[in-house]
């Protein structure tokens, strides 16, 4: 490994196998309006939901609170272990499944909704949609959900660059779907997440770019954040930094006669 190489060659292929409790504690959840838009109903009692790439269960918990039954599919053991905490609270309504978007191992034609919440950028879209079509019952739908810092605001854009936050998801860039699916409709909700300096630094530690970085590059990124927030932006140790976000919910259904895609 070269001296300037930022990546830790010993990191697991799935960086989220290194994810600790900070992911659950500091990643923002989803606004209630966005959850309703993704599920497609006000009252989700009786709804069968597959949460693909469920992580620590940010979306799963919201769907369960709304009354849905959830099958949470997650490949990373470190995240499934955190999902177990939610499973204790919903023993009859939450199933935690080891699997991937392209092969969930779940039965055919039982789901009302297949959700990709903060996971779509990790999947093979074509194969994931074939699997979603297999899982969905008649009149079911797919919801692709993104929480995104609002990088149209200059200081937020610089923050995301320091944090190496990855892809930018905007309302003008809908997910690319195959011809068997309807053009996705969009629901957008703005919200604010408030964290102090240490909270923002902890949030940065949940990024895959951080989890797979070398120790030296991790320390450099954290030091840059400390400088940016405290010295450049002038926040004090206990000040709340209000970070503007928006949530995008893209919904699509199979076109009539397109069950075999």
What is the overall silhouette?
Answer: globular
Q: Strand order across the biggest sheet?
A: 3-2-1-4-5-7-6
Question: What value does the average pLDDT take?
Answer: 91
Specify the helix fraction band: 25-40%
Count of helical stretches: 9
Rg, Å, rounded:
19 Å
In total, the number of strands is 7
Structural class label: alpha/beta
Q: Report how far apart the termini are.
A: 43 Å
* Percent of residues in β-strands: 15-25%
Order of helices and strands: HHEHEHEEHEHEHHHE
Largest sheet: 7 strands, mixed
Short characterization:
33% of the residues lie in helices and 22% in strands. With 261 residues, the protein is α/β, with parallel strands linked by helices. The protein is globular and about 60 Å long.
């Amino acid at each position: 490994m070269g001296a300037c190489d930022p990546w830790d060659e010993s990191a697991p292929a799935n960086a989220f196998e290194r994810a600790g409790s900070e992911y659950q504690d500091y990643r923002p959840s989803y606004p209630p309006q966005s959850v309703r838009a993704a599920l497609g109903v006000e009252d989700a009692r009786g709804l069968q939901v597959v949460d693909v790439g469920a992580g620590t269960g940010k979306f799963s918990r919201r769907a369960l609170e709304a009354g849905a039954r959830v099958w949470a599919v997650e490949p990373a053991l470190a995240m499934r272990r955190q999902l177990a905490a939610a499973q204790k609270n919903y023993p009859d309504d939450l199933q935690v499944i080891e699997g991937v978007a392209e092969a969930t191992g779940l039965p055919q034609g039982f789901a009302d909704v297949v959700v990709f919440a903060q996971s779509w950028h990790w999947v093979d879209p074509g194969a994931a949609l074939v699997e979603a079509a297999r899982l969905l019952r008649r009149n079911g739908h797919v919801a692709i959900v993104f929480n995104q810092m609002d990088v149209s605001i200059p200081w937020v854009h610089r923050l995301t660059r320091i944090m190496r936050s990855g892809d930018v998801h905007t309302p003008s860039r809908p997910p690319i779907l195959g011809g068997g699916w309807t053009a996705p409709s969009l629901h957008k909700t703005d919200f604010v997440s408030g964290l102090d300096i240490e909270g923002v630094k902890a949030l940065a530690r949940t990024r895959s770019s951080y989890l797979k970085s070398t120790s030296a590059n991790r320390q450099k990124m954290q030091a840059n954040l400390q400088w940016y927030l405290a010295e450049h932006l002038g926040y004090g140790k206990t000040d709340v930094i209000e970070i503007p976000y928006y949530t995008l919910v893209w919904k699509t259904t199979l076109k009539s006669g397109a069950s075999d895609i």
